[in-house]
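user: Here is a favour to ask of a fellow structure person. I have my own habits and do not want them to colour yours. Could you put it straight underneath, so I can go through it closely?

assistant:
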Amino acid sequence: MRFQIVDAFTDSLFGGNPAGVVIIPDGQDYPDDETMRKTAAELRYSETAFIKKLGEGRFQARYFTPAAEVDLCGHATIGSSYALTVEGLADKGSTITYETLAGNIDITISDDGILMGMGDPASYGTLESGTVVDLYHILGLEAHGQDVCGQNPEVKLAPEKVSTGLIDIMTPVKDEKELEAIDPDFKAMSELSEKQEVVGVHAFTINSEDGLIHARNFAPLYDIDEEAATGTSNGALAFYLYQHGLIEPDKVYTVVQGEKMGRPSKISFQVIADGADVKVKVGGSAVTLAEGSIEI
């Protein structure tokens, strides 16, 4: 089977978020689940995408962390879509479809990058006040004062469970200094994530000196202490900010992530709204680090 290691959400090597990509040969089926999980663990990246061609422009995608299968992974979708162009299985200028456990995802591939539609956005509610205090304590922060919004002082932000395919806790912090200071208790975060039935915590600030959104993502429940770029989480963040009136529809915004890890990433997102019908797109560039054959 062919494999690639692809850095997603970057146009230069050793930036962005790396993902493994395994392409199932024509006429073959997926290996068993445990083999795919072990392969993801052997490749040692946060997610590995296993891609099977179903027809012209149509693929099935399954995503494994070293610990378990997950329904969807944004950076592995961007990375694997780029890998398909390298393998000659998809063309630039085309739109392909992934069938995933989170539903069908349309992916547009262009010379400027890759833009993927996300699952239907949904909010699963804010956290109880005691849980909010626990959450910030787990992050190594005080809960008081984290709700500030520099763009609109009348808006008070609160941690909220949001999904565009995977549920994360959107967690506002007041500025970049607080974001950089986060030092999580990963065991406690895993327990909180399991109790709240979420993948992890997406901490962010919109009060930055450069005017961009900055974020850090943690999913220790799935053996991912911190991730350099997360498409699904930033898709959820786009919906969260749109709900609070902090971003405009159709405009493309940039999230900077991975700085603390030394792997700066830039993730683009866009909200498209037609009345009550709201869609989210997330995108970026990608580059291949390595490719070859894998014996599974």
